[in-house]
Amino acid sequence: MEAKPPQGLREGPTVPIATKDLPFLEKVRLKGNLEDIFDARDVTEVVYRVMRDLMTTEAADRVAEELHKPAEITEDKSLQMEIADLWKDTNPIVGLLSRVRPPWQGPGIFKIDSDRFLFRVANEGGLQANVDRELVVKAVFSATKDELSQERIQEIASWLPDHVRELWEKA
After folding, report:
1. Does the residue 42 lie in any domain?
2. Angle between the N-to-C axes of helices 150-159 and 37-54, in degrees from 0 to 180, rounded to the nearest 10
3. Which residue among 16, 25, 81, 82 has the highest number of C-beta atoms inside a 10 angstrom radius?
């Protein structure tokens, strides 16, 4: 049967794979309308960086504890990582600074509001002009929420600025 499958298997309707059953980065790629899995990986790291900038180190650590699942099932070593690896910053200096500085909220020049959040994702993530940054952020949020407990989902929502929180809740 494997050598010569029935003709019926080559025809007819296909059954879509439920997105909950897809690997993390594939969910981000599909829901964000991204060209490839590497774009999904890169933009996920940036979304996570901006999210961590809004949170205390303790809150970010609680999120990381829940993200220990493969990000993608592949032979490509550059994609063999856990979702928690995406949560941690790949830049060691930025990673260190994010652990020692306070959350970027409240008054001041470093406040991250919804506009700055989306601006940073688009610019730091290298999104092309035709890519909808809100759609991409929602894609990362949706895939992330599939991996987290309800308690962590609510905690993250409490850190997000107004419009970005709406994207989180809709994801």
Report:
1. yes
2. 70
3. 25
Cβ partners under 8 Å of residue 139, min gap 6: 27, 28, 29, 30, 31, 32, 34, 40, 171
pLDDT 10s digits, 17-28 = 445 557 899 999
Long-range contacts of 16-19 (CB under 8 A, 24+ apart): none
Q: Provide the residue range defining the domain that includes 113.
A: 19-170
- Measured CA to CA, the distance from residue 107 to residue 110 in angstroms comes to 8
Residue 95 lies in a domain: yes
> Residue 59 falls within a domain, yes or no?
yes
Alpha-carbon gap, residue 139 to 40, rounded angstroms: 9
33, 17, 36, 44: which is closest to 147 by C-alpha? 44
Is the Cβ–Cβ distance between 118 and 127 less than 8 Å?
Answer: no
State yes or no: pLDDT of 103 exceeds 50: yes
Q: Is residue 52 part of a domain?
A: yes
Kindly report the CATH number assigned to the domain that includes residue 164.
Answer: 1.10.490.110
